[in-house]
Amino acid sequence: MTEPLQWARYHWQRLTGGANRDDHERPYSYSSLLACRGKSSQTPKLAGKHRIVVPHLQPFKDEYEKFSGTYVNNRIRTTKYTLLNFVPRNLFEQFHRVANLYFLFLVVLNWVPLVEAFQKEITMLPLVVVLTIIAIKDGLEDYRKYKLDKQINNLVTKVYSRKEKKYVDRCWKDVTVGDFIRLSCNEVIPADMVLLFSTDPDGICHIETSGLDGESNLKQRQVVRGYTEQDSEVDPEKFSSRIECESPNNDLNRFRGFLEHSNKERVGLNKENLLLRGCTIRNTEAVMGIVVYAGHETKAMLNNSGPRYKRSNLERRANTDVLCCVLLLVIMCLTGALGHGIWLSRYENIPFFNIPEPDGHVISPVLGGFYMFWTMIILLQVLIPISLYVSIEIVKLGQIYFIQSDVDFYNEKMDSTVQCRALNITEDLGQIQYLFSDKTGTLTENKMVFRRCSVAGFDYCHEENAKRLESYQEAASEDEDSAYTPSGSLSNMAKPRAPSCRMVRNGPLGSISSDHLTGSCFALGSGEGASEVPHSRQAAFSSPIETDVVPDTRLLDKFSQITPQLFTPLDETIPDPPLETLYIIDFFIALAICNTVVVSAPNQPQQKIGLSSVHGMPIKSLEEIKSLFQRLSVRKSSSPSLASGKEPSSGVPNAFVSRLSLFSRMKPTSPVEEEISQTSKSPQGSGNSACPIETEKQDSNVDVTNGKVESLPGQPLASSLCYEAESPDEAALVYAARAYQCTLQSRTPEQVMVDFAALGPLTFQLLHILPFDSVRKRMSVVVRHPISSQVVVYTKGADSVIMELLSVASPDGPGLEKQQTMLREKTQQHLDAYTKRGLRTLCVAKRVMSDTEYAEWLRNHFLAETSIDNREELLLESAMRLENKLTLLGATGIEDRLQEGVPESIEALHKAGIKIWMLTGDKQETAVNIAYACKLLEPDDKLFILNTESKNACEMLMDTILKELQKKNPVSPEQASSEALHQPPAPPDSGLRAGLIINGKTLEFALQESLQRQFLELAARCHAVVCCQATPLQKSEVVKLVRSHLRVMTLAIGDGANDVSMIQVADVGIGISGQEGMQAVMASDFAISQFKHLSKLLLVHGHWCYTRLSNMILYFFYKNVEHP
Amino acid sequence: MAMNYNAKDEVDGGPPCAPGGTAKNRRPDNTAFKQQRLPAWQPILTAGTVLPTFFIIGLIFIPIGIGIFVTSNNIREIEIDYTGTDPSSPCNKCLSPNVTPCICTINFTLEQSFEGNVFMYYGLSNFYQNHRRYVKSRDDSQLNGDPSALLNPSKECEPYRRNEDKPIAPCGAIANSMFNDTLDLFLVGNESDPTPIHLERKGIAWWTDKNVKFRNPPGADIPLEERFKGTTKPVNWVKPVYRLDPDEDNSGFINEDFIVWMRTAALPTFRKLYRLIERKTDLHPTLPAGRYYLNITYNYPVHSFDGRKRMILSTISWMGGKNPFLGIAYIAIGSISFLLGVVLLVINHKYRNSSNTADITI
């Protein structure tokens, strides 16, 4: 019931003018989230002004009245009407609709006696009935919102009361600007506030913003500078500063202001200090802050948006037809009037049948003609099919109903079905010509799964693991249950510690409210929020399918040979049987440590497991500290992809920043300790009072893993360690290593602790990390092996690169060399096999360095880091120096699993003549791999790769490709240049199928004005286009370009926040619900749960909707115009 | 949106709850209606169904058309224009309004005898009885004998509602413009004096009009004139409504000429039944072939709007008056579909074996 209501309401609203649009249909402004858009704030009336916030306390009473008195409080009202203004306002809005105005005009016209044609009272009836029905609908809808508002307004939070000198429970609606609020873990933030205190010793507070921007990872917020050092909670009574900040705006990524202490000292505020309404406090026991924006002035509310209204093509077409009808009507009436006048003037005398006016006068022919005109308008009113609009709406309502009740769209796992959010473009679904799809999470599940590996030339195909993956779909729910049972119990344990969480935790109510806060309530209907509960959490931490790897039995057998004694002789010359075992050990150690994974325990408020070891960090000398700093700076500088264009909120940089800040804070106080290993655990318990459970758990974890061979769901505690990785592949590898009892326990900038089955816990001193970059296509870690005390380089990277870096001549004699060559060949075979199966392959290699070698390299590297000119090149060179003479350990095959039914759907859509573009931020190799896997590209397709560095090169390349294409698909040049743009040639099965791969940089050139045309022409000739490394903005620009220049119907489908702009630009935007938060769904017109549903949605429902609706419209014109 | 990690409890218990608090599955019902699987029949046109249809239509329609056409042709009809615009016409003198009453006589000859009942019509041309306001200008409750409406006619009758402060009965423009020529038919026999043909005045209106829709004001034993007391005649009329016919059953509102006139014609050229000439015996034709003359009391002015006046004599058949169109239409449709059938048969025969003939659809 709710959706039809909303639909109707918005449909009426759509016709309402701009006046009330401003305050009710605020244009969706997600775009402002994209920093590159540069869109400014949308509240001009307050722009330029500042707001001063002073605490709502006794000493500032006067000042408070002066400033904060005018700010709105936290009560929200999203309803449109009040009891008093309902009737006039509703009528006013309804008469904004052209159809109603026309009806009204006719009714009024009929009241004019001279032209009246029908009974006056009767003509009023239909209008009155229609208006009443719509008014009742609007009223009900508004009442529903009123109730929801009331629920939210009456949520309870802890506000400092100056009377009672403590925090008391108060409703959200009573929170005002200047109030101090104290929140506990997992509570929802009631208003935008500046963070003044966090129980976290580093002054960090984690918030989850998934309700706001759909990003499911946790974000960090920082306590205002100056308050961090305070050990105890900030006492509101003593808070004497005032805050000056910008006036409310809807830019989620901007907050500027300063905090002025009573001594006129100013501390700058930025968005890192702001807690946004609607977000949830995570992993932080308690926080305290002062409210700066409340109610409708919060950023969340300013970003609020309802469903959008797109007008379908068919409707636009029908509108022009209706306009033609109006024209026809006027012409007919004019003809009638003119004819009447002429006919009357033909008679000299008055004939019997021409009746004089009631008063006996005979009107002149001209006047008679004039009256006749209006009379005829009344008489011929049916010519304009006004009922058409009402009927179209009702029919669409029915279509929506049928789409939503299609059982094929039901997703058992998520208990969700398709959601139609834009309710009037159903028939456009049947007209799609171009489909733009995101890759990750849309085509693939975004779950990297370890499939198989090859170690020391032996392929371990992990049959059991493959079986598990196959059977996963069926067993999914049970799997999930069993995986979460232990965590459930853990969280139960955590409960008593945070009693105040309960008020926002009371199930459905809480989830609605947070929905509402963040603006999704209008669109999602009431049930949505609840259904999201499991997913976002699941997305934040890896799902069981990724974490549970069933070990290969053969490999496990070999594992059993591992004993600590293996290392006691520590003699590399001992040949054969142990060598393979050594390889295996090294391989898994490399998997576990050669990455940037952050270890966390998801069920604990305190996240940082590695933190404790920071206290006992083994820093040997000042020099080492220095090198640490250099390392950090290298990491920062050698990851330009993070710095440019990407949101700082994408998770990784945040983690990085936190590490950085952590480190810098630690520096002055860090004790210099010699002890390296085993110290890490003991200070954790004492130093970190916040998480006793965790310590306990960790200990037991170690015990268990030592004792048993299997570490699968039967062992709850082991699986409760969570790995947050930069890329899901890394996490997959770490999880794979864990399955073989090689568990990554903690990671700090200084050391990595791995719990290796038979060898017990190993602590690797982390000497250096050479992070991944796209030029080298590999990453390395340099560690000091705890057992052998050697400096070991573990490298992991693309097979093509690693293979070239392997040592040609082994120092250990010809026998080993031969073995290496064999190993290399075998591994290469395995790699080829993996690639054929669509797996993402990685090679793992190692190199043992002598201390002197390392020292020399370090010196050179230091030079490279400090040089100003050619720094990048020097660093690259330095890396090259390190990563050579490698010994191949093995290779891995990781599957980014395609979603179920994706290849079939893409094939069907291709067959239907829909062109599919894949727009992804991923690397080219990955994107192409997936494109092949999902049958977007066929193996015998001709691929054209656009990957250039300059505009001219891009132009030339496109030219060449075009010429080549023209040669193969001969089309006359005129046709190619003129018609090609509007009538894309090359039907899918015309001999040559061409695929175009273009990367982000080249795309930028191609999107420039001068090359647009060429690019489009080229793209139109290719049956599939893959854009890799595309930014969200580029995605939307591509869609916009294709849509406007080719004049085609476009559809964009995506699941993440980065697809939002693309979804909004396309004619039809489809969001995949479930994977990456709600943002894409919120922006979309339709939300489905899996890509495979798209084919039925487009090819069946779209087709039906279109034919049915167009037939109905045709019939309407037939009925109204032909037979009025 | 995840509220907190403790929400896992919910997951273990089952699907998340709807806000109502009741756990419900959102799976749509798998019913024929919701899944759009209701039985439907969509005819697929193939040569096998279309060709026979065309032939059958042709075979049925052509004989029907021929039958109707022949029947229509057998109907005798004669039409005499007596408007008198032609100076040689005997009625030409009546065009000037000065001559009252003007009587003119028109001679005509029936070449063939008229058998069975003969119907006499008057026809008017260029008379827009379908004018929107003309059609509305009547008061049906007055015509139905409602006493209050008799004295207070509807406003629709304006400006023919009241005359000299008296309500007009019958009011309105239709009644006011009633046809008031008198036509008499004489057979010029072999004898010197012509025999008048008996024209039946009753039985020309619909039964429902005469008995239901039109009624005189109440009062069975009161003379008709009394019942219309307080009203005045329409402006153009010579005599009041209760003097339309000497027979009281055919006078007042139930006068059949009046009733026929009040049923307005849809087109500007129309004919209305004026009199019946009933068949006397089976032996003699109703109107034997021979010379006749029509005696016209010329009252009705049509000259001002270029109207024409005609007198029509016609017999009827089972399908009504003379109407060749219906037969022609039947024959034409029948022939066309037969022809189409032949053409499609040829096409089908010729291209049956090419690849996509299986579904030649029309």
TrEMBL record, chain A:
User: Which residue ranges have biased composition labelled Polar residues?
Assistant: 677-689
Chain residue ranges for the region called Disordered: 472-497, 668-705, 968-988
Give me the segments passing through the membrane: 98-116, 122-140, 318-343, 371-392, 582-601
**What name does this protein carry?**
Phospholipid-transporting ATPase
- Gene3D superfamilies in the record: Calcium-transporting ATPase, cytoplasmic domain N, Calcium-transporting ATPase, cytoplasmic transduction domain A, Calcium-transporting ATPase, transmembrane domain, HAD superfamily/HAD-like
Q: What reactions does this protein catalyze? A: a beta-D-glucosyl-(1<->1')-N-acylsphing-4-enine(out) + ATP + H2O = a beta-D-glucosyl-(1<->1')-N-acylsphing-4-enine(in) + ADP + phosphate + H(+); ATP + H2O + phospholipidSide 1 = ADP + phosphate + phospholipidSide 2
Residues given in the record as Mg(2+) binding sites? D438, T440, D1055, D1059
Matching entries from Pfam families are given as: Cation_ATPase, PhoLip_ATPase_C, PhoLip_ATPase_N
Mind telling me which GO cellular component terms the entry cites? endoplasmic reticulum membrane; phospholipid-translocating ATPase complex; plasma membrane
Please give the family membership noted in the entry.
Belongs to the cation transport ATPase (P-type) (TC 3.A.3) family. Type IV subfamily.
Binding sites annotated in the UniProt record for ATP: D438, K439, T440, E730, F772, K796, R840, T920, G921, D922, K1035, N1058, D1059
Q: Where in the cell is it found?
A: Endoplasmic reticulum membrane; Membrane
Write the Enzyme Commission number(s) for this entry: 7.6.2.1
P-type ATPase N-terminal domain location: 66-123
Q: How does this chain sit within the bilayer?
A: Multi-pass membrane protein
From TrEMBL, chain B:
Keyword Transmembrane in the entry? The reply is yes
One Pfam match: CDC50
| Location relative to the cell | Apical cell membrane; Cytoplasmic vesicle, Secretory vesicle membrane; Golgi apparatus; Membrane
The keyword Cell membrane is annotated on this UniProt entry: yes
* Annotated GO biological process: positive regulation of neuron projection development; positive regulation of phospholipid translocation; positive regulation of protein exit from endoplasmic reticulum; protein localization to endosome; xenobiotic transmembrane transport
Principal localization reads membrane
Note the InterPro entries from the entry. CDC50/LEM3_fam (IPR005045)
Q: Single GO cellular component annotation? A: Golgi apparatus
**Span list, region Disordered:** 1-28
Q: Where are the transmembrane segments?
A: 44-70, 325-347
Q: How does it sit in the membrane?
A: Multi-pass membrane protein
| This protein's UniProt keywords | Cell membrane, Cytoplasmic vesicle, Disulfide bond, Glycoprotein, Golgi apparatus, Lipid transport, Membrane, Transmembrane, Transmembrane helix, Transport
What terms describe the molecular function in GO for this protein?
Answer: aminophospholipid flippase activity; structural molecule activity
Q: Which PANTHER family match?
A: CELL CYCLE CONTROL PROTEIN 50, CELL CYCLE CONTROL PROTEIN 50A
> So what family is this one in?
Belongs to the CDC50/LEM3 family.
Question: Would you tell me the protein name for this molecule?
Answer: Cell cycle control protein
Q: Which gene encodes it?
A: TMEM30A
